[in-house]
Design brief:
heterodimer; A: 117 residues; mainly beta; 4-stranded antiparallel β-sheet; B: 114 residues
Chain lengths: 117, 114
């Protein structure tokens, strides 16, 4: 199956710094990627839809200036958590859409665990 | 807007016993339905999906699910679980296309006991 890779898998940073998480589709091109956030023992909440070559579409309640998304190529989307604070600590998961001649399928990355001290 | 409810937050089960994870959804339009599994500190892996056609869907690792439109349910079953099935299971729906954004249920943690 298609592979989506996230980097880094774990990151610890100090409060006030910015952190970038990368999501790459390794063996296919993805015009659309999705970013999810997962709190401990909870479900995944969609944060935004990342569209190659255009601005991301954010879900209601997600701060655009806090969570910067860039989808500069067909295989890479990045999520930058700006001025991170402890409440931003979470597990961030991306998914990429692969069109297989029909309606497509989503493939998920391994996730990135962010800990803000 | 659509929503997904997983009725059981945790399901303990003995090895080689059957398991059923319940999922109900709410939507004013037709949906596509999915079950994903998540192992600790990992992303999600697709178990199975319902797009159209037969309401009984077979997936990987011996799992199957049945779409019931009248009851708006998509319960997941496995006749005999293994220790390795211990994980978090998520039911999800998509209303526009199978490759579009998903709405997830709260998840069900399955703990398989020896």
């Amino acid at each position: 199956g298609a592979v989506v890779s996230q980097h880094p898998s774990r990151v610890i940073c100090k409060s006030g710094t910015s952190v970038k998480i990368e999501c790459r589709s390794l063996d296919f091109q993805a015009t659309t990627m999705f970013w999810y956030r997962q709190f401990p023992k909870q479900s995944l909440m969609l944060m935004a839809t990342s569209n190659e070559g255009s601005k991301a579409t954010y879900e209601q309640g997600v701060e655009k200036d806090k969570f910067l998304i860039n989808h500069a190529s067909l295989t890479l989307s990045t999520l930058t958590v700006t001025s991170a604070h402890p409440e931003d600590s979470s597990f961030y998961i991306c998914s990429a859409r692969l069109f297989t001649g029909g309606t497509g399928e989503l493939f998920f990355g391994e996730g990135s665990r962010l800990t803000v001290l | 807007a659509q929503s997904v409810t997983q009725l059981d937050s945790q399901v303990p089960v003995f090895e080689e016993a059957p398991v059923e994870l319940r999922c109900n959804y709410s939507s004013s339009v037709s949906v596509y339905l999915f079950w994903y599994v998540q192992y600790p500190n990992q992303g999600l892996q697709l178990l199975l999906k319902y797009l159209s056609g037969s309401t009984l869907v077979k997936g990987i690792n011996g799992f199957e699910a049945e779409f019931n439109k009248s009851q708006t349910s998509f319960h997941l079953r496995k006749p005999s679980v293994h220790i390795s099935d211990t994980a978090e299971y998520f039911c999800a729906v998509s209303v526009q296309a199978a490759g579009n954004k998903l709405t997830f249920g709260g998840g069900t943690r399955v703990l398989v006991k020896p």
